[in-house]
Design goal:
The protein is mainly alpha-helical and about 120 residues long. The chain has four helices and no strands. The radius of gyration is 23 Å and the shape is flat.
């Protein structure tokens, strides 16, 4: 589809101008869409889960499963972070986890109270 009058580099620029987005942007949009789908499905699971257990039980099990699933990842990448301070990493992880648990618990209370 290349014409003799238009070099290839101008055709690429023209295609990008017509389409308006680059390949990296398409990948970013798809990742964002996937994240939104996972997040939306999580709300359905939360509403259904609240029919059987309380807020703190649901979040406790949820965070325990998340923590256990991270153990293989930590062991896999442990060699690459040999110089890291373990106490500092644990402190940061526990503080971050506590804040995330509190935020998730407030979200669960909101779902329970609004009847979503």
């Amino acid at each position: 589809m290349r014409t003799a009058a238009m070099p290839l580099r101008f055709q690429k620029i023209k295609w990008q101008m017509v389409m308006g987005i680059k390949k990296e942007e398409v990948a970013s949009i798809l990742y964002l869409f996937l994240t939104a789908m996972i997040w939306g499905f999580a709300f359905v699971a939360q509403v259904v889960g609240m029919d059987f257990v309380g807020t703190f039980t649901f979040n406790g099990v949820r965070f325990a499963v998340g923590s256990i699933s991270l153990v293989p990842v930590i062991l896999l990448f442990e060699k690459s972070s040999a110089g890291a301070d373990v106490k500092q990493m644990l402190f940061g992880g526990i503080c971050g986890g506590a804040v995330l648990f509190a935020a998730s618990s407030l979200q669960q209370f909101g779902i329970e109270l609004t009847g979503s």
